[in-house]
Amino acid sequence: MGGQLVRRRHGRRQGFGWGRALRYGAAGVAGLVLVAAGAFTVNLFVSKPALDGSLALNGLTAPVAVSRDAQGIPTLTGDSRLDLARALGFLHAQERYFQMDLIRRSAAGELSGLLGPVGPVLEIDRSRRLHRLRHRAEQVIAGLPADQKSMLEAYADGVNQGLAAINGRPFEYALLLATPQPWTTQDTILAAYAMYLDLQDEDALTDRIRGQTLARLGPEMTDFLYPRATSLDAPIDGLPLPEPALPSALPALGNKTAMINADPGPTIGSNAWAVGGALTANGAALVADDMHLGISVPGTWYRARLLVRGGPDAMDATGVTLPGTPALVAGSNGKVAWGYTNSYIDTADVIVLEPAEGTPGRYHTPEGPKELTRVRERLCPAWVACQDMVVEESIWGPVVETRADGSKLAVRWTGHEPDAINLTGLLGLERAESVDAAIAIAHRARQPQQNLVVGDTAGNVAWTIIGAVPARFGHDGSIPSSWADGTRGWNGMLPPDQIPVIRNPDHHRIWTANARIVGGDAYAKLGDGGYDMGGRQAQIRDGLFSRDRFGPAEMLAIQLDDRALVLGFWQEQMLAALMARPADARLAALAQPVRDWGARAATDSVGYRLVRAFRTALAQKLYSGYLGLDGPMPRNRSAAQQEGPLRRLMTERPPALVPPGYKDWDALVSAALTEVADQVDKAGGIQSFTWGARNVAEIRHPLARILPPVGWLTDPPEQGLPGDSMMPRVQGPGFGASQRFAVAPGHEAEAYFHMPGSQSGHPLSPYYLQGHQDWADGKPTPFLPGPTRWTLTLEPE
Predict the structure, then answer these.
(1) 489-533 pLDDT, tens per residue?
(2) Could you write out the DSSP letters of every residue in 284-311?
(3) Residue 198 is assigned to a ligand binding site
């Protein structure tokens, strides 16, 4: 009996023990969650940037006044440019440090050290480590002139003091249970490298895919499908390039060739144009710019006005800065206004390494056989063990691919040059006094190669390339080739007097939109790194020639132009195909919306989305058939000009070129229409198939993509947006105009500015997301900062 009692007691105690443990455990977890939530909330409230009062900033030679307006846009006023760099670093750290950290880590291949091996983060790190950009940043720093080193040092010091002055830590680190690491001068160079990586084909994927296509389809079909020019081109110099002939027959395709399976995402582009003083009321040039990038919260850019009072450093410049760097990227200094678009000139080439006898890493060069250099890179993701990867480097650049036969491909890229980055362009343009001075500065600058559009108070306008241009010999850089015998390669960079310039054309208009700008010898010098098709550029050009007088309002109208001129051809094709198939009830239901499509990428348009989907489905099926792909073709810059061949094929419908897998052209069209009808059904019916339902903003904080609940705190309300990639108003999910402005130098008070996201990265800032809805709605807001709401004085310590 006593034994039974003991057993019962033990049983009761055992059962009660588990229950109590679970209750205590649940209470403990809940308590920990509450403590963590409480700690995060406290940190969130105390980590807001300083807006008012006076703070000591070590290293200043004189006080710097920081006056912010209602949107948080600061005017920094000081006695020297070096002081402003230190103060700007302070502000960037206070409001954007997490963004700066992601930028430098992305370039260096160190994202996983903060975010862990989640999703594709570790793979991104591996691809970036191939380029060893932290090592290259050290080389760049070593080669900079003393004044630029001093600028970087002042900026980095200001950043670290701004970070230290935050109570707690930036809220993102509190969520990640991480501690932000200090900023260095090398990190600023990495921020510039990040723009190289965003804007260029650092692995020369386009050339590699073109080489694979050439091996499968032969030169005639490859040249036709991936033309260098089409009838849509709108170069400023008006020089045409010949379109390739329509092939007479398909080549013997044989077995499917494995294509590189890569999707680089949306086209990184931009619009920029200018009109000369002859076309403005005040006689000054008028420059418009909207750079198209991935958009998140906060925005890509940090707006600022930089004012140096008197002396040799005197300046008054307003525009956008890139957090992580100390200079204005685009804007106006009262005498010159400037903006950029991605140039897509050819900045990277693929070299086929010819194996030499001996060890596997031996290859031929013009100086004789050499060994590949093997460098060990160590990746240390958060929460898991470190791992090593080996980077192989040739005299031309790193090995980016080992093919099935064992041969290796290396890449020569301007981003690998020892002088790939300097501050000459950014700091020089802040003080440029004329278009001619800006051009001279651009040709000494080292930064991602961009179309520079510039205008001055005297009414001059110009275009040129800012940054270094490779001086190729023996090849055009379009496909992989061997450089082993010395007959092909680069002779360094073009001297400044050989870089193309268009200055003050007779019609007083400059326009760029990522398409080809020049023909003839100038085109041959710049090469083709995957120019956009010319439809968007032509639409801008035609808008500029539609009138002979311009002010900011007329510039904004072109920036917000969402007319679907390029897709007009496809609306006609789709409507004709639908009318020819009346017996198919699903297709018949699409005819009326297509007929009444409105010819605009409007959010409520069903017809626009239908036409857009039809064009996309047909293009993917056609190219995938030719290339032997089981699914949609890989997106790459080679196919940027596909509009030309697509139109020619659909107009002429040559029987000999029907893509494999289809009986005839009607069968291809039917397959595309069926795919569109399937998309409509999946969306819930024709009334739900609006462009706004497809073209949603998706502007999120980077952490919200990993931790979705963060979005409740950080992200703007979701909404559909007008516009698309084939028109001036470029907009897509998480992508679009990272800013918009139009400004005449000397008349900044009449100019406007838009920016998505937020000036501040802190969600409790009083101006968090201010201006975002104006950007979405296309509502003009002032270019210059408004009346002062907060004043912070940074004092020498």
Answers:
(1) 999 999 999 999 999 999 999 999 999 999 999 999 999 999 999
(2) S-EEEEEEEEE--SS-S-EEEEEEE-SS
(3) no
Which one-letter amino acid corresponds to residue 132?
R
Q: Cis (ω within 30 of 0) for the bond into 780? A: no
Q: Which amino acid is at 228?
A: R
Please give the Cα distance from 248 to 259 (Å, whole number). Answer: 25
The CA distance from 178 to 175, in Å, is 8
CATH class of 568-599+606-689: mainly alpha
Nearest CA to 126 out of 449, 399, 377 is that of: 377
Catalytic residue among 67, 106, 112, 270: 270
For the question of residue 270 being annotated catalytic, the response is yes
Task: Quote the CA–CA distance of 788 and 525 in Å, as a whole number.
Answer: 49
Query: How is the chain split into domains, by residue range?
Result: 47-241+267-559+743-797, 568-599+606-689
Residue 296 has φ and ψ, to the nearest 5°, of -140, -170
Nearest to 557 by CA among 710, 728, 718: 728
Give the pLDDT confidence of 461-491 residue by residue, as tens digits. Answer: 999 999 999 999 999 999 999 999 999 999 9
- How many whole angstroms separate alpha carbon 589 and alpha carbon 584? 9
The alpha helices in 445-551, defined as continuous H runs, are 520-526, 535-544
Spatial CA neighbour of 560 closest among 576, 574, 543, 577: 543
Q: Is 349 annotated as a binding residue?
A: yes
Contact between residue 648 and residue 658 where contact means Cβ atoms under 8 Å apart: no
Residue listed under structure tokens 């990867």: 389
Mean pLDDT of 625-635: 72
Bridge partners of 411? 350
- What mean pLDDT comes out for the span 185-205? 95
**Which of the 8 DSSP states describes residue 230?**
-
The position carrying tokens 């582009």 is: 269
Cα 341 from chain centre: 11
Angle, CA of 412, 414 and 417, to the nearest 5°: 95
Tokens, residue 279: 């076309």
Phi, psi of 457 (to 5 degrees): -65, -25
The rounded distance, in Å, linking the Cα atoms of 162 and 246 is 61
Pairwise CA distance, residues 493 & 443, whole Å: 11
Q: 707-716: long-range contacts at Cβ-Cβ below 8 A with a sequence spacing of 24 or more?
A: 707/175, 710/175, 713/763, 714/297, 714/763, 715/297, 716/297, 716/757, 716/769, 716/772, 716/773
Task: Single out the residue of 430, 442, 550, 421 nearest to residue 502, CA to CA.
Answer: 442
Helix extents (H) in 144-183? 146-164, 171-176
Q: What is the pLDDT of residue 492?
A: 97
Query: At 202, is the secondary structure helix, strand, or coil?
Result: coil
| DSSP letter for each residue of 374-389 | EEEEEE--TTS--EEE
**Residue whose entry in the numeric block shows the structure tokens 């040559």:** 654
For domain 47-241+267-559+743-797, the CATH superfamily is Aminohydrolase, N-terminal nucleophile (Ntn) domain (3.60.20.10)
